[in-house]
Amino acid sequence: MTPAAITAAPDHCRPSLILWAGIVLVGLHVLVGLLSLVWLPYDPTAMAGGRLEGPSLLHWIGTDRLGRDLLTHLMIGSRIALIVGLGAVAIGAALGVTLGLLAAFASKWLDDALAATLDILIAFPTLLIAMLVVAASDTANLWSAIIALGIALSAIVARLTRILAKRVLVMDYITAARTSGSSWPKIVAIHILPNIWPTLSVNFALQFGLAVIAEASLSYLGLGAPPPNASWGRILQEAQGTVYTAPLGAIAPGLALVSLAIGVNLLADGLRDTIDPTRRAR
């Protein structure tokens, strides 16, 4: 290996600027969400000021139509967004990876049936599926929204897992492992999952952002976390009647939602560039 190649090799492993931007944006929301667990400026249910007050030293972002501190509710909204995103991705990953691996190992007719079912589910909007699942439950709450979004996202994960696993199954080292007497669970754990995990991790990051936006939409429609949980979607819904007289009440949660969604997408793009150095070279 030439000296030039030696010095150039570490550059491919160096995180990109896009990845760092995503880490910073998402990291800020994580810090705010963790801080809300131990400290809040005011009690979220307390009428700490006048109605629709502007930013001040006591209320940095102002108050809502009931006189509650907006910064307190935004901090709680960051915590709820992170809980929903992580919970929905965990459920979607568990269901999706399991179904995708079963489809990859299934017989042709069962594989075709599962693939057709997944395509039908993917054709429906994620928010619509989540609304149907939440509506089918007895009450709308945070956990029903997480489960609904996880089920809705699992179809996308299952389809991607099936495609990636089928590509790995035709490799020579899989044939060699089978010839040596390795069982299918061992092949999945040692050969298949490690090879498809980098691509799946990028998809999980994208699913996280989609789950956060979908939860805000559910809360805006009254199907998300009930009061006093201050979801960003509920804050937007409550502020829509006073958007002309106190626009900050709608702008602040909107900016928080957009910044987290952009941060997650930048993080996913940065992970993709880091996993596939040829993209950075291009």
From TrEMBL:
It is found in: Cell membrane. Pfam families: BPD_transp_1. GO terms for biological process: transmembrane transport. Residues 78-268 form the ABC transmembrane type-1 domain. One of its GO terms (cellular component) is plasma membrane. InterPro entries: BP-dependent_transpt_permease, MetI-like, MetI-like_sf. Keywords: Cell membrane, Membrane, Transmembrane, Transmembrane helix, Transport. It is a multi-pass membrane protein. The chain crosses the membrane at residues 17-42, 80-106, 113-136, 142-161, 204-223, 243-268. CDD domains: TM_PBP2. The keyword Membrane applies. Its main location: membrane. The keyword Transmembrane applies. Gene3D superfamilies: MetI-like. Belongs to the binding-protein-dependent transport system permease family. PANTHER family: OLIGOPEPTIDE TRANSPORT SYSTEM PERMEASE PROTEIN APPC, PEPTIDE ABC TRANSPORTER PERMEASE PROTEIN. This is ABC transporter permease. It comes from Devosia aurantiaca.
